[in-house]
Amino acid sequence: MNPADAMQAAQAAPVVDMSLFGLFWQAHFVVKIVMVGLLSASIWCWSIIVDKTLLFRRTEAEMDAFEEAFWSGRSLEELYRSYNDRQPNGLAAVFVAAMREWKRSFEGSGRQVQSLSQRIEKQLDVTIHREVERLESRLLFLASIGSAGPYIGLFGTVWGIMTAFTSIAASKNTSLAVVAPGIAEALFATAIGLFAAIPAVLAYNKLQASVAKSQSRLEGFADEFSAILSRQIDERLSLAA
Amino acid sequence: MRFPKLTFDKSEPGVWISAGTHGALLALALFAVAAPALPNAEEGVPVEVLTEQQFSELTRGERNADKPQEKPNKADRVADKVEEREPENAKVDTPAPPTRTAEMKLASVDEIPLRADTPDPAKEEAAAAAAKAAAAKAEAEKAAAARAEAKAKAEAAAKAEKAEAAKREELQKLVEREEAEAAAKEAAKKAAEAKAKAEAKAKAEAKAKAEAEAKAEAEAEKKLAEAKAKADAEAKAKAEATAKAEAAAKAKAKAMAEAKAKADAEAKAKKQAELANKYSPGDIRQLLANKAPSQSTGSTGREVQRTASLGTSTGNAQKLSPSMRDALVGMLQQQIERCYSAPPGATQGIILPMLDIKLNPDGSLTTEPRIMRGGASAVDQSIAQAALRAVRRCAPYKIPSQFAPYYNDWKAINAEFEFSRV
């Protein structure tokens, strides 16, 4: 290749805009979709992270407040009345569910005390399950993004590299100046994928640990409370007998 | 999956916070962290491709030469007769520059520059002393003359005759003294003559001149004396006497000055002659310059070409490159293998036999192949013998022409051959 040709080729080489917006705009349609999808996934992930963090903090505070009230020596009836009005969360929900079943058993004419203990256990279990589910909801999305995000980004990258090589073949020029921009914009997709996935994985692990902690706390309280209630039931049975 | 309401909920502000943060980050990345402009794309530099032949040539010769030379710059044999003429053995000497000849006139002494530009200070001193002595002598003479004059003046009135006689006597004395001086100089010159002819001649000439001048002076003096005598005889007046005395004094002074000038010239000429004959180490250069530079025409058989040679394609002892050697051995093995039949019952030997195969340029065997190294076991021995038979049977071998230049290297091949058990 003589110098004149080389000069022409250099001039003909595409001027590459390496800014973020430029990289996005030059990308193939599929890669664009991948990028937009990953970006919205990232936004959604962070919104979940923020919401869940706030929710757990709130739940923790409510549990602390309830435990304090529970062990303050107030009568169970009083507590039930004060918590039944509002939508109870966490420990309060467990307490209210158990108390409701207790009260229902002693309402009306007949006393159904025989299997009351079992019913209360069931109620406690169901309530705990419901509470944990509420805490856990949407965390799975974080897990999915954490594991699938890089793959989605990689898909965009592979697609971008394919188109880049097609353009290389079209330009009949193997210089790095022709190859590099396509690969760079393709790799941009993987970058966005990682950008979405890394916080998702970290947050998922952290939030999952918080859920486990809350669940064990709920279960502990439920056991304690069911012990108290069964003692009450036994007392009443012995009184009745 | 439950999506949050798009209205702002105080308990779940995640969507809004997340979207806002992402937007801010994107804006920051777009405007603040703009990618730097890429440099202009440049074409790659073309790479020179060497053939194997060129590469093997490169491995010979000198590393920093420009290109291989057509002819090796070393003579194949040393010339029978080395032709090298040193300056001493030159056929023709360059003519020596003219030196100062003895016949050179004294008058031209001034035109010839002194050989030594800086005269010897001692010599200079001696010259200065001589000049001083001469001046002192002249002064003494002048003083004597003045005295005589004064005496003459004093005595002129009373005894003109006496004064005249005294003057004459004085003159006589002067002449005598001068003559004595001349004689002394003559003696000195004669001594110098024994030393060098040039000096002697110059001196002789100078002496002759001095004598002539002295004679002329004496004559002038005589004439003066005669004139004086005549004047005395004619008139014996005081004024005349004084006038005569004055004239005599003047003439005497003139003679003195002439004598002095002559003496100076003589001294100078003497010095010149001495310097011309004296050996001076600084003149060795001049002596050497008499000879012409070396007239050597260059050696025939010696290595005279100093340009570096980047290998040569015609020099002897070309070496096979390792890859070429491998290729050649592989080719031979392939050809030998066709004739090889494994000895019955022999499994693959442990030690591969190393064969020594001597080849002609056309690929035929020069001598019987030999086993260079083989195993001691019966199996190894039988395999080696089978290989020998195969080598013998397959000759001549086809060797590609590209190996022809390296025949020196492959005319004897020692290699291990491994044959599959056919």
Automatic annotation (TrEMBL), chain B:
**Compositional bias per record (Low complexity), positions renumbered to this chain:** 127-137
Q: Which domain of life is it from?
A: Bacteria
The annotated regions of Polar residues compositional bias extend over 292-321
This entry carries the following GO cellular component terms, namely: membrane
Q: Which GO terms describe its molecular function?
A: toxin transmembrane transporter activity
Compositional bias ranges of the Basic and acidic residues kind: 59-91, 112-126, 138-242
* Swiss-Prot/TrEMBL GO biological process terms: bacteriocin transport
Region (Disordered) location: 55-242, 291-321
Instruction: Name the chain's protein.
Output: Protein TolA
